[in-house]
Amino acid sequence: MKWYRVQAVILRHLYESRRNLDRIADTVYWPVMDIVMWGLFTIYLSRGTGARPGLVTFLMGAIILWNLFRCFQRDMAIGFLSEVWSKNLANLFSTPLTVGEYLTGLVLVNLLKGIIGMIAASAVAWLCYAYDIFPMLPRLLPFMLNLILFALVVGVMTTGLILRFSTRIQGLTYSIAGLLMPFSCVFYPVSALPRSLHPLAWALPTTHSFEGMREALAGRPVAMSHFGWGLALNAVYLTVAVFFFRRMFEAVRSRGLLVKVE
């Protein structure tokens, strides 16, 4: 792997994002708007219904971390789609650039964008609602790592599917996080789900992340069991995702279809 090629991928996407209002909106606008809306909702809960203060903390923390997952997963797929939309895919891979170098560059630039969105949302939560997540970040870092890894898994799998089935299924880029959200138990514990759905929920690293987050925000010790299960699941899923993407890429390239992905 050559680092200068990875840097080239990063620069290509940074240059595009700098002058693209859609990318700026995806990175900052929507995370901030989510915090504004959920912040108003938490004010209603705390004042109008007498909800316990811990509930407000759980909701605000959950929406900040969920936005980190959703934005990173979405931007991984959109980064690949931008190559397809601009018909640049064949140009990229006619160079010595490898799949690993391309994915590494894509991961790094989208991780940066996800962190920027998270910082912006956290700053708005602090300024407008006096909710400060920054002192709690050391306790949340293990669960944030698992969220980022699973977002990478979903992004790579979505990209592989787009590579195989073209942009006919590009809607997955925006919808798959919504499909996972009810089973990830972002705003409620697993016990709130029907018992028949518990195995599905526990099979998702996001569920372990948010269960662990709630325990951390409640002042209990960091739930290493949730972190360990999430990390193990991510290791399995990431191996499958990378293998799947490589198979799809090699199948498309060997048949000379890179120039026809649209």
List the helices and strands and how they pair.
Layout: H1 3-18, H2 21-48, H3 53-85, H4 89-93, H5 99-129, H6 137-165, H7 172-184, H8 198-202, H9 205-217, H10 224-254
Helix pairs in contact: 1-5, 2-3, 2-5, 3-5, 3-6, 3-9, 6-9, 6-10, 9-10
- What is the 3D shape? globular
Percent strand = under 5%
Oligomer: single chain
**What gap, in angstroms, lies between the N and C termini?**
28 Å
Count the beta strands: 0
| Number of discrete helical segments | 10
The Cα radius of gyration reads: 19 Å
In the residues, how many domains can be counted?
Answer: 1
Q: Spell the H/E element sequence.
A: HHHHHHHHHH
Taking the sheet with the most strands, its summary is:
none
Average predicted local confidence, pLDDT: 83
The residue ranges in which pLDDT falls below 50 over 5 or more consecutive positions are: none
Q: Output the structural class.
A: mainly alpha
Helicity level: over 70%
